[in-house]
Amino acid sequence: EDSYRQRNKKSGKIQLLFSGRIVAGKGFDFIITAFSKIKNKDNFHLVLTGSGPEENLVRKLIKDLGLDSYVELPGWISRSELYDVLKKTDIFIQPLWRPYLSSLALSEAMAFGIPSVIPGGGALAFVAGNSCLTFKPGSADDLAVQLEKLGSDHDLRAELSRQCYIRLNKEDVSYEKTMPKISKIMRNLALRSERK
User: Fold this and answer.
1) Cα–Cα distances in angstroms (integers) from residue 126 to residues 25, 33, 101, 103, in the given order
2) At the N or C end, where does the chain have fewer CB atoms within 10 A?
3) pLDDT of 108-164, one tens digit each?
4) Are 22 and 28 in contact (CB under 8 A)?
5) Do residues 77 and 85 make contact, with C-beta atoms less than 8 angstroms apart?
6) How far apart are alpha carbons 97 and 131 in whole angstroms?
């Protein structure tokens, strides 16, 4: 639980991460647009892992916006490679998502104690609780503001990291606490159907 806080940077580039299949609607273009609005780009390094049919369009957008030196696209990486990247990540970004769905990627980032910047007002914000900053959904300007805010505040990153573990231990998020309850409900439903 203390590993993120022990490596939390007071200086140097802040590594941002988003990972997923590069398809329309995932938000790779949205992150790149938001990143282009950051004033102090030299303070950041953006890593976008994944591959997919929109990869060439994403690469073109990065080039068109002159962000080649700030953005890394390693392509698809294995789970163990992703874990290595997570161990170096300072801020996780979940750019776009259906408001009623959570994200495994967010839960993985929280398990590594990585503070996140996510859309406000939906299931992601509920799951993250106090371990994130939120931006106005659909606003690349607000995403840029929140990334700059979190990237420039060592103490805020440390506190949001601490909050990851507090949130992951809550009964409504912890799989260790919810799975036995779900299992009991499923057993009861199975017994009821057997009696009919």
Assistant:
1) 21, 26, 10, 11
2) C
3) 999 999 999 999 999 999 999 999 999 999 999 999 999 999 999 999 999 999 999
4) yes
5) yes
6) 18
